[in-house]
């Protein structure tokens, strides 16, 4: 074998490594370092999707390996987002701290004891015009706190930590009112029609009942709605 044209190499040394070999070796070293010293299971932003790729939930980026994700966490973008998240969490903690101020201006912590789940009823409904399918939730809060109004929010499968791994086919409806436990309802991940007449909530203070109606949107129903409006001359939103 001719060794005289291999610049910078010695006989038996194998030659100098190129850029691709050096880069591959660096990534392999980072991967081993990450496996030895970093526990990704404790990282709340590390998520492996169904394709086997790594996703950063904080920065909404995708990476092909743990080494790539580790390099990303040391970058400027991830560090800035971490700082912003920390400031946001501290601000929310100060604003949502369950405290009350007495007449002596002494801050007293407010302890809320949960008394169980409220009674509820779910009714399947269907819009006679658009043929959209929907649900009507009725919850009863006989022991609800003073000046407390039930609140609700829609949560994606990736926000919850009860079912693991998360299933993108579902989403969750949360309804909360002190001193009752928060109720979570598992719904299909079909887009919800957010128009005012389609999705609404009402709390009856006399009977302590909370009502929430929602409809699921689909392209077929959207076409039916537009045709009905055009043919019947209906004004306003449905």
Question: Keyphrases for this structure?
Answer:
alpha+beta; 238 residues; 12 strands; single chain; 2 domains; elongated; three-stranded antiparallel beta sheet; four-stranded antiparallel beta sheet; 26% strand; Immunoglobulin-like
Task: Summarize the structure in words.
With 238 residues, the chain is of the alpha+beta class. The chain folds into 2 domains: 1-104, no CATH class; 119-232, Sandwich (Immunoglobulin-like). The chain is 26% helix and 26% strand. The strands form 4 sheets. A 4-stranded antiparallel beta sheet has the order 6-7-12-11, with no helix packed on it. It has a 3-stranded antiparallel beta sheet with strand order 1-2-3. Strand 11 and strand 12 (209-215) form a beta hairpin. It is elongated and about 80 Å long.
Shape: elongated
Which range best describes the helical content: under 10%, 10-25%, 25-40%, 40-55%, 55-70% or over 70%?
Answer: 25-40%
CATH C-level name of the largest domain: Mainly Beta
Strand order of the largest sheet: 6-7-12-11
Query: How many extended strands?
Result: 12
Alpha-beta content class: alpha+beta
Instruction: Please indicate the count of domains.
Output: 2
Q: What is the fold named in CATH at topology level of the largest domain?
A: Immunoglobulin-like
The termini sit apart by 82 Å
Strand count, sense and barrel status of the largest sheet are:
4 strands, antiparallel
Q: Topology as H/E string?
A: HEEEHHEEEEEEEEEH
What is the level-2 CATH architecture name of the largest domain?
Answer: Sandwich
> How much strand?
25-35%
Low-confidence stretches: 100-109, 224-238
- Please report the number of helical segments: 4
The whole-number mean of residue pLDDT values reads 77
Radius of gyration: 28 Å
What is the subunit arrangement here? Answer: single chain
């Amino acid at each position: 074998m001719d060794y005289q044209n291999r610049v910078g190499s010695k006989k038996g040394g194998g030659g100098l490594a190129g850029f691709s070999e050096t880069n591959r070796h660096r990534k392999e070293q980072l991967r081993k370092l990450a496996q030895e010293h970093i526990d990704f299971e404790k990282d709340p932003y590390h998520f492996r999707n169904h394709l086997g790729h790594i996703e950063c939930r904080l920065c909404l980026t995708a990476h092909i390996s743990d080494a790539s994700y580790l390099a990303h966490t040391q970058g400027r973008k991830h560090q800035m987002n971490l700082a912003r998240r920390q400031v946001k969490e501290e601000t929310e903690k100060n604003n949502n701290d369950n405290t009350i101020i007495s007449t002596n201006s002494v801050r007293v912590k407010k302890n809320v004891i949960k008394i169980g789940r409220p009674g509820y009823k779910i009714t399947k409904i269907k819009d006679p015009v658009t043929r959209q399918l929907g649900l009507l939730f009725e919850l009863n809060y006989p022991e609800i706190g003073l000046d407390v109004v039930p609140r609700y929010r829609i949560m994606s499968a990736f926000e919850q930590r009860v079912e693991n791994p998360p299933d993108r086919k579902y989403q969750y409806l949360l309804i909360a009112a002190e001193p009752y436990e928060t109720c979570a309802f598992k719904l299909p991940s079909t887009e919800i029609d957010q128009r005012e007449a389609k999705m609404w909530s009402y709390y009856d203070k006399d009977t302590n009942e909370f009502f929430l109606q929602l409809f699921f949107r689909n392209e077929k129903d959207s076409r039916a709605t537009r045709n009905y409006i055009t043919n019947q001359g209906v004004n306003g939103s449905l």
